[in-house]
Amino acid sequence: MPDATAPLKPLGRLRLGVNIDHVATVRNARGGETPDPVRAARLAEAAGADGITAHLREDRRHIGDADIERLVAALTVPLNFEMAATPEMQAIALRHRPHAVCLVPERREERTTEGGLEVAREENRLAHFIAPLREAGCRVSIFIAADQRQIEAAARIGAPVIELHTGAYCDAHNEGRLEARDAELARLRDMAAFAHSIGLEVHAGHGITYETVKPVAAFPEVMELNIGHYLIGEAIFSGLDSAIRRMRALMDEARREAFGDAGAA
Questions:
Q1: Plot region of 207 (φ>0 → left; ψ -120 to 50 → alpha; else → beta)
Q2: Coiled-coil regions in this chain (predicted)?
């Protein structure tokens, strides 16, 4: 029998996905071609990003169709294509066949993605929706709250990956609600372990900053963090290369502190 007192070990090197949506937000505020999100993606690659995330929203408020085409052509690291579960987005994903597709909830009036996808109420539709994406070779992930019911539903529909929404934890930290922060962190920890126990690969993201990254990075089951808005904001002051390298260093530090040499692999 396994030794219950043995320290946990991470499942592998913690990957960093950099979301470049808000480079496009700045570009679109004025129009024209600058700043270029594809240039940002290349800089992120050079700074140590393991992947690039881009969300093609239905209203095209930041990333546009041409951006996706250029990213697919330019990247040497995987593209994580965030999208709503609509026929239009499915067709675009099947045309480009990115490495990964992450299904997220989407409402026109929201400023950013709020909450996780409601999988449990739409199991049949979502199961049929992701089937052709998986057949096309895309790694399908579902962006969900740290809720056992939603995690179980994601597993039932055949999604191999979930991304846990870390927004409630990060918001509580930023607002100084320490008891709520600790409760949310415990929920994330428990649900990451549960998801792994039923065979899912676990990612996490939303609202993560330099101050909030290390506790999440220390979860042994988490294989990837996706971080965007904060890094683009920090890049205004320190540059994108510096911002990404600092986040990468904090992630690696958290792994080493939690797991010793095993966390540095």
A1: left
A2: none
